[in-house]
Write a structure and sequence with these properties.
- This protein is α/β, with parallel strands linked by helices and about 325 residues long.
- The protein has one domain: Indigoidine synthase fold, CATH 3.40.1790.10.
- The chain has 13 helices and eleven strands.
- Strands 1, 2, 3, 4, 5, 6, 7, 8, 9, 10 and 11 form an eleven-stranded mixed β-sheet that branches.
- Helix 4 packs parallel to helix 13, helix 7 runs parallel beside helix 8 and helix 11 packs across helix 12.
- The chain is globular, with a radius of gyration of 18 Å.
- The structure holds pseudouridine-5'-monophosphate (PSU) and manganese (II) ion.
- Manganese (II) ion (MN) binds next to loops.
Length: about 325
């Protein structure tokens, strides 16, 4: 009845065995399947991400919620069900909506924050997503703001500050106020690390147009830094940012201009709350005639591969 987080976990046998034998595991989130991408790209990317984790030598654990249970590892039928569920029937579960998600029937998808909570409870240390949430444009008001501050700051940032997890992504989503997002992460003590370049990766673009707080030359160096961070026992996560593959990347200036336009349109349309990020991603897909979807899918799979490599490099470290 009043089950604890641990009591709510249903761990897939493959993941359970990997946990028992100390094999590398990578958690994958499910909101990008239900709310971030259209069908069939969503199920294709979910399958391809799992395959990329396996090719790197690790076990994938896609996390979602169904009928009061947190599923850690989905089989293929479950992935398909989640990806094809009627629009609006899947709840977007973050830390603030986790209890609501667990006390209703049917599917909920987990965001970065909820996935981190579940993965940590299961004993998983590495997690791959597309782009983390952050400070939305206009959240803080400011000189260009037409409206008072909205305070729309993703619960992903608070989660990164308190849950120890290596989060591999392609940077904060370009729809955000990226400099403000970096400032919040700095204040909350979360290392943000670019791999292979000085610039912060810009989600669907190679660069966000600002330098990353820290850079490492390659994936082994990222793994070593992440291991050092977790070993300190500070309690928070580390964000490893891998640039989107060059062949599908949107040009930096176009990605930024399109994100600004979509954010303006969302404001005019009065879209806010948890619906905002999915709305912006869908609108950007329209404006770019699908180019953003090609970049988004490729970067998610690439992040999954890199997360798999990091998990394998850290598999020797006792949990
Ligand atoms: N990465 C993507 N697509 C997505 C997301 C990440 O490529 O849709 C999701 C993640 O689940 C992230 C969420 O936690 O977007 C952020 O939502 P919000 O801004 O409402 O916190
Ligand atoms: Mn929000």
């Amino acid at each position: 009845m009043t089950a604890s987080l641990h009591d709510r976990l249903t761990i897939h046998p493959d993941v359970d065995q990997a946990l028992a034998t100390g094999r590398a595991i990578v958690a994958l989130e499910s909101t990008l399947i239900s709310h971030g991408l259209p069908y069939p790209q969503n199920v294709d990317v979910a399958r391809a991400s799992e395959a990329a984790v396996r090719e790197a030598g690790a076990i994938p654990a896609t996390i979602a919620i169904r009928d009061g249970r947190i599923l850690v590892g989905l089989d293929d039928a479950a992935l398909e069900e989640l990806a094809t569920a009627p629009s609006g029937s899947v709840l977007k579960a973050a830390r603030p909506s986790l209890s609501a998600a667990l006390t209703r029937k049917g599917w909920s998808a987990t965001t970065v924050s909820a996935t981190m909570i579940a993965a940590h409870a299961a004993g998983i240390r590495v997690f791959a997503t597309g782009g983390i949430g952050g400070v939305h444009r206009g959240a803080l008001g400011g000189p260009d703001a037409v409206h008072p501050p909205t305070f729309d700051i993703s619960s992903d940032l608070e989660e990164l500050a308190k849950t120890p997890m290596i989060v591999v992504c392609a940077g904060p989503k370009a729809i955000l106020d990226v400099p403000a997002t970096l400032e919040v992460l700095e204040t909350r003590g979360v290392p943000v690390v670019a791999v292979g370049q000085a610039d912060l990766p810009g989600f669907t673009a190679r660069s966000a147009g600002i330098r990353a707080p820290w850079s490492v030359p390659d994936v082994p160096a990222a793994a070593a830094l992440a291991e050092a961070h977790l070993a300190l026992g500070l309690g928070g996560g580390i964000v490893i940012c891998v640039p989107v593959p060059a062949d599908v990347a949107l040009p930096d200036d176009i990605a930024r201009a399109v994100a600004e336009r979509a954010a303006r349109e969302a404001d005019e349309a009065g879209v806010h709350g948890p619906a905002l990020t999915p709305w912006l991603l869908a609108r950007i897909a329209e404006i770019t005639d699908g180019a953003s979807i090609r970049a988004n899918t490729a970067l998610i799979i690439n992040d999954a591969r890199v997360a798999g490599e990091i998990a394998v490099m850290l598999a020797h470290v006792p949990r």
